[in-house]
From TrEMBL:
The keyword Metal-binding does not apply. SUPFAM superfamilies: Acyl-CoA N-acyltransferases (Nat) (SSF55729). Keywords: Transferase. One of its GO terms (molecular function) is acyltransferase activity, transferring groups other than amino-acyl groups. The keyword Transferase applies. PROSITE patterns: GNAT (PS51186). Residues 13-176 form the N-acetyltransferase domain. The lineage of its organism: Bacteria, Pseudomonadati, Bacteroidota, Bacteroidia, Bacteroidales. It comes from Prevotella pectinovora. This is Acetyltransferase. Pfam families: Acetyltransf_3. PANTHER family: GNAT-FAMILY ACETYLTRANSFERASE, SPERMIDINE N(1)-ACETYLTRANSFERASE.
Length: 176
């Protein structure tokens, strides 16, 4: 599978709301310190806090200004999480975040999920723009977003801090 891969060649993915039964998976992903360097999390989450998040989320992007969903495959395995955050209804844009669990990485699930969230954002949410901040050193993520039609807009100096040094990030944008 290459950059020229069609949507039909990508693995099938489905999105669904996060359920209380997903607490252990959410706990594992949110507390994976290797992911903290590419996001805004820098403290561990308790199961209680995550349970309260699941219980308190309306699932309505207009009310919560975000929506987070489970990504699953045809076998029903939880492949990862996708979220739209910092939703701005006036300017019709949202930040895209995606995490694929280790056993499913390198199998094009991220590309499949990004293609699906693009369609959801365009057809259901009527969003004009998706964007993501990607670590300049994460060549896999950069290539995946580029394969999904995202363009590099700007390089942000010293944007990400890994606890020892700052790294650059690229603002990737997709216009629907």
């Amino acid at each position: 599978m290459t950059a020229e891969m069609t949507r039909e060649e990508l693995p099938a993915v489905r999105f669904r709301a996060i359920e209380p039964e997903d607490l252990d998976v959410l706990y594992k992903i949110e507390n994976d310190t290797s992911l903290w360097n590419v996001g805004v999390t820098n403290v561990p989450y308790s199961k209680y806090m995550l349970h309260e998040y699941i219980a308190g989320s309306s699932g309505d992007i207009y009310a919560d200004k975000q929506v987070r969903m489970i990504i699953s495959n045809d076998a029903g395995d939880i492949v990862g999480l996708v979220d739209l955050t910092d939703f701005d209804p006036r300017h019709r844009r949202a930040e895209l975040g995606i995490v694929i669990q280790c056993p499913f990485r390198g199998r094009h699930y991220a590309q499949a999920a990004i293609e699906r969230i693009k369609a959801y954002a365009r057809d259901i949410l009527l969003i004009h723009q998706l964007y993501a901040y990607v670590d300049c050193q994460n060549s896999t993520a950069l290539r995946t977003f580029e394969n999904c039609g995202f363009i590099s807009s700007i390089t942000l100096k010293d944007w990400l801090f890994d606890g020892k040094k700052y790294r650059e990030a690229v603002l990737m944008q997709y216009f629907l």
